[in-house]
Amino acid sequence: MATEEVIVFTPRGQKSCLNCKHRKIACDRLMPVCSSCKRRKKICSGYDYNLSWPRSGDKRRAATAAVPPQKYQTDTFAFLNTSSWDVMLHYENFDAKSQLNRVGVWTPPSPVRSPKLPRFGTNKCPIYDNEISSAVRLITSRGDLRQDVCGLLRRMSLTDDGVSSLAVRYAMNAISYLYLKKADEATLHQMHAVAALQGAIDRIKDPRCRAQAIAASLLLSLYEVLCPSGKTTVWSVHFDGCMTIVKSSYQDRREIEGEHAVLLDWVFYHSVLYKFSLQHWQQRTPQMAAIAQRDMFIAQIVSYDHFGTIHSTLGCSLELLEFLSQAIDLVNNRDNSKRSSHAIYDLESKIRDINQHPCVGIDREDYHVSGSRKRYVTIARMYQLAVLIYLDRVVRGSAADSRLSRTSAEEGFALLRDLGLCERPFIMVMLALQAEGDSDRLLVLSALENAINERPLSNLTSTEHIIRSIWAQQDLQGNEQADASAILNTVVSSYDIPPSFT
Fold first, then answer.
1. Domain housing 164
2. pLDDT tens digits, one per residue of 33-74
3. What distance in Å separates the CA atoms of residue 281 and residue 100, rounded to the nearest whole number?
4. What are the C-alpha distances in Å from 430 to residues 74, 266, 326, 391, 485?
5. Angle made by CA atoms 80, 83, 88, in degrees to the nearest 5
6. Most CB atoms within 10 A, among 213, 297, 360, 496?
7. Distance (Å, whole) CA 54 – CA 68
8. How many CA atoms lie within 13 A of 437 on its CB side?
9. Peptide bond just before 32 cis, omega within 30 deg
10. What is the dihedral of CA 191, 230, 261, 122, to 10 degrees?
11. Region 389-406: what's the mean pLDDT?
12. Is residue 473 situated within a structural domain?
């Protein structure tokens, strides 16, 4: 039997081992280790896959490229703090048809914080205490006079259990329950208030019932404005009824004083600022337009000294509110005619020369908190500057860099920076029209935040949304000079109902 030769095949790798490959030498590819590594007494790296990590110092394959910093010139585009809603308003700004047929896309949000349950009717004394009810805080600006409208409304609601007192009480309860997010209770009290008001109107010859009917009518109109599902027609009916009672009861009387004067001050304040809101809300009905044009002639029914006094609840004098009402009337006659120009110039001179003086006893600590004089005088001056800005930017149609608007805004921002907060929506909106720089805009937002923290039950949250929308429209306008009247009309008209600036 012949002997067969046995051939043994030594396995070899398909490629060189990594050590030989890196050293760039020949490799016999023997497995498990090559002869070169065995001869050099090195650990053979084998023939497995190797992840392609860059070696230390290999700049060509570095994980992070060492690229020197370079400056790139930006183009003309910028990112804006806007939404699709703002862009839609921007494109509709100069569309006349959309101005008339606009459908509101945003409604004022409800405050996050909820007030305590109302206590009306549970305790009729003391009238003057430190805790002001939620409804009164909601519908009035803060004033620390003991005989201001806050105390007046509480006295009216708690006088007795007659229909006129119940009308005021139920109306205030309705507003309180509305912000407690209890819609059923709010609607129930609103219906009770309407029924009681009808009974009070039957006794309108009684001076006390007449005053309570005026207060209840205004409260019900405020309820309709604040109610998310409110109807503008109902709102106008209540306010029209309020103005009708005022006109029939007080227009022929001279120098009304005391609580009746406080009530008329409050009605006139809301009348002027409702007029401002309706003027720039393009969906107003003919009835609303008629209400906006109805004047109270407040100067004829209060004393001259009362007419020029700074009232804590109003924030300024009745005389300045009268000038604001006249400025709103001039918006409809905005043209280049000499007659219109002369009227604007004469009104500007009157606003500049107005003398608003604090009330008597402003320094009495038992009636006022510390710093009341400074706060009242500062807010009144800011109101004066805001009316000048409105007259110049909106009525006259001047640009933002006009001398009157620029100087008024500079002083207004300085006063706002010193005061730290401002809870007057009209003032903040007018300053926002002039706040085109980041520093001024941050100041406005900071002041609003402080005011909201101090007065959480207010319309300041919706005011902030209005201001941000105004800024978005200004930024979308670009380098072109934005028309303040067109922007104001666009933003205000985007509401389902006329927004409140009281």
1. 88-103+125-493
2. 888 888 888 888 777 666 667 677 776 666 666 666 766 565
3. 10
4. 33, 22, 17, 10, 11
5. 110
6. 213
7. 20
8. 8
9. yes
10. 40
11. 94
12. yes
* CA-based nearest residue to 439, from 463, 461, 416: 416
Q: What is the mean predicted confidence (pLDDT) over 114-133?
A: 37
Here the tokens at position 209 are: 């019932």
pLDDT digits (tens, 9 = 90+) for 314-353: 889 999 999 999 999 998 777 667 778 899 999 999 999 9
- Residue 302 sits in the same domain as residue 181: yes
Tokens of residue 364, six digits: 């009495």
Mark whether 5 and 96 lie in a shared domain.
no
In sequence order, the β-bridge partners of residue 357 are 309
Helices H, strands E: what count in the chain? 21, 0
d(CA 474, CA 190): 40
User: How many structural domains comprise the chain?
Assistant: 2
The token duo for 399 is 């640009």
The answer to the question of residue 359 being in a domain is yes
CB 431, CB 112: distance < 8 Å: no
* Tokens representing residue 236 in the block: 């106008």
Q: What per-residue confidence (pLDDT) applies to 144?
A: 47
**Residue of 237, 329, 234, 232 whose CA lies nearest to 284:** 232
Strand partners of residue 495: 106
Q: How many CA atoms lie within 13 A of 444 on its CB side?
A: 31
Phi-psi region of 420 (alpha: psi -120 to 50; beta: other; left: phi over 0): left
Distances (CA, A) of 224 to 124, 145, 153, 192, 238: 27, 28, 18, 15, 9
How far apart CA 279 and CA 289 sit, in angstroms, is: 8
Are the C-beta atoms of 389 and 433 separated by less than 8 Å?
yes
Question: What is the average per-residue pLDDT within 73-90?
Answer: 66
Residue 75 domain-assigned? no
